[in-house]
Design brief:
This protein is an alpha+beta fold. It is built from 31 helices and 33 strands. The strands form 9 sheets. Strands 1, 2, 27, 28 and 29 form a 5-stranded antiparallel sheet that branches. Strand 3 and strand 4 form a beta hairpin. Helix 13 runs antiparallel to helix 14 and helix 30 (about 905-915) crosses helix 31. The protein is elongated. Residues about 460-465, about 555-565, about 620-650 and about 940-944 have low confidence and may be disordered. It is found in: Endomembrane system; Vacuole membrane; Prevacuolar compartment membrane. It holds the Pfam family VPS11_N. Involved in regulating membrane fusion at the tonoplast and the prevacuolar compartment. One of its GO terms (cellular component) is CORVET complex.
Amino acid sequence: MYQWRKFEFFEEKSSGKCSIPKEIEGNIQCCSSGRGKIVVGCDDGTVNLLDRGLKFMYGFQAHASSVLFVQQLKLRNFLVTVGMDEQTSPQLSPICLKVFDLDKMQPESSSNNIPVCIQILRVFTNQFPVAKITSFLVLEEAPPILLISVGLDNGCIYCIKGDVARERITRFTLQVENTSDKSSSSITGLGYRVDGRNLLLFAVTPSSVSLFSLQDQPPRRQTLDHIGCDINSVAMSDRSELIIGRPEAVYFYEVDGRGPCWAFEGEKKFLGWFRGYLLCVVADPRTNKNTFNVYDLKNRLIAQSMAVREVSHMICEWGNIVLILNDKTALVIGEKDMESKLDMLFKKNLYTVAINLVQSAQADAKATAEVLRKYGDHLYGKQDYDEAMAQYIHTIGHLEPSYVIQKFLDAQCIYNLTNYLEKLHEKGLASKDHTTLLLNCYTKLKDVEKLDLFIKSEDGLGEHKFDVDTAIRVCRAAGYHEHAMYVAKKAYKHEWYLKILLEDLDRFQEALDYISSLEPYQAGITVKEYGKILLEHKPVETIDILMRLCSVDEELSTKKASNGNRLSILPSPVDFLNIFIHYPQALMAFFEKYISKVEDSPVQVEIHNTLLELYLSNDLNFSSLSQENGSIVPHPKEASSTGASTSSLAENDGVNKDKDCKERLEKGLALLKRAWPADMEQPLYDVDLAVILCEMNSFNEGLLFLYEKMKLYKEVIGCYMQAHDHEGLIACCKRLGDVTKGGDSSLWADLLKYFGEFGEDCSREVKEVLTFIERDDILPPIIVLQTLAKNPCLTLSVVKDYIARKLEQESKLIEEDRKAIDKYQEETSAMRNEIQDLRNNARIFQLSKCTACTFTLDLPAVHFMCMHSFHQRCLGDNEKECPECAPEYRAVLEMKRNLEQNARDHDRFFHQVKSSKDGFSVVAEYFGKGVISKTVEVPQDNAT
């Protein structure tokens, strides 16, 4: 033990000038501490209390003569004393045990503080013979239970257990030694150990160490050792280990026997335990001087060693060690703070001791890391890089990594730097820069094995101790593409994986296979980004992948639905338009496949619009790609190296281009018709866009179809007129000008006007047109003649037959009208004569029967001018009009009112005029009915 280093980790407080207060006059017999004060028992029977700094608080007479033992309780502010009182009887021992409540003072002691004594017990009774007390110990159980053990010189231990304040106690005896030699059997030390529910009592004699199990009845004794110690050489550690001191060594005891042994030479006058330190007052037999040593057993060093005079008592309170000397002086020794200890060790370069010290003191990790850093700096200064790095590694998590990295950036320390960066990643504290630096170290060292271990030795799926993007970027830049791809695939960094495959390795098929294995949503994202490259090298396979992404097979859908899995939302085909910018043929092939497979797509309008634009475009980029046998291959123009001449290639290119354009126009017309079936009001494409495309690309067939579907018949015949297609024009008017089939008969008038302004001989076409105009009576003859007269190439023979027939028809109509006029005139004259006769002549009613009931007419009877007669009873209340003639008369009046009302409805009149084939007949009808023959007199303004 002489090899243990000695340090001064403790120091004397108050400059070593402490003494027992003068108020304590007697000799100190016993001491105790607790609850922030020191209790001193003297041979004059007084008990004195000292506060921090050994200042006198108060004292009181506890016993008549000497105070033998005193103990301050921890849980309650009670003081237990054992002392000599007056002997009232020769049979009774004067030794008494008293319990004082320090929180309660006697009321009669106004000048002096005297606590209340709540209980007095005789230690010795008839059942417990008198003996010399050598040791004393009190254990506080659950309040108010106390366990008091009194060790005697005869090897017995008297125990008192219970509520001592109320004297609800039990007494029992423990026998340790049963020899007559009191020098070897006296109890020199006691110690309690609470082990769960087990209560154990250590008992020490000069010749043995025993252990009692107090939970057993009777208590069971176990001998732990056959060596012992003297008084004041017994202590208990903070782990409830029994410590005894002998001249040759200090021994530790557990419940199962002797434990560690520390060979400290010298007589152990006092033994104690303080915050993990072993306290010893050792008498050197050679110099006969006393030394106070503080041992740090864990770090194997002497924390303090100082020469002292004769010590009478040693106690610990206020975080200090108090040594009371025989001359009533005292030494108050306190532990230095950790910073002072470390400064002392750093000055001596004792870094290992400093590290052990902070670790044993359970200091915070930051403080420990600071010590390790200083030790590492010390080793680094000595160029012991390996050991320095070993210390720096322990600081990870508390020391800024850049501090260490900066020191080891030198090339000769690359191995140490690599080791540090590896540990940094293992603890998950590495940043992107650290990952970059570590991977650069691996690549610089060309250590593929370590690179594999770093990249591929992850514990769990998706768990990475480094920044993934940084690792991929560094490995890719260093040419380790497989490592970069491994990280990207494991971290689900699909963009990185495909970027390496396509841009670095040109492995297009593998990229397509990888995309096929992804979820539809993620696969769609990757195709949007890399679709152009894939189309350039693998167009057919790329389109197949797009078809799988944008459509779901029925079998796959049924399988997923039966398993209860939710189908992910499919990407839309129009989302991939950007990748087809330079490949219109591929886009056309993709959309054609899609609409053939998916019938009710939500984006079919957009797809049809795009396909129409591709089909109808005249300047489609045909020279870059061509479609042959369902696959997209380079155009033959790009294969001039095969030996074909430039002229033949150009000629072949023109033929293929015309053929492709014709096929696309046919597809476009088919799409226009297919996407606008007869039962649909609106098509599955944008009509306005379709019309614009057809106009821009001069696609007349498409325009004709669209105009006809939109019922723009005049625009339809306008297309034929513009093309001077007379045969098609007449055929179109036959189809669209039939009113019975919903057509517009005015188309014939427009057609006739066209031929009238044509300026060339078109007699045959005009005759055919006149046939339909005459059949449906579309135009008056005068209009026909005026229209055709504008064409100087037409002769009268063209319209001779038509005019002859029309004149004959008109003559017949005139004759019919004359006959009707004569008839109406005769009827009018007859009516006037009848009216005149009614006004001037009497009427003779000769009917003999009632017109209503056909019975013989009798009085009272009613006769009407219309020559109808009725019984008055048959008429009821209506005697002013004839029941037979009234309905006809009312109808005439209603008609007259309607005509007068229509005369005021100008909009209806003009609508009938415009919609009628012969507007003049409508006007004549209004005049004939007398509707518009009436004039309204407008009041003249009198202001003239």
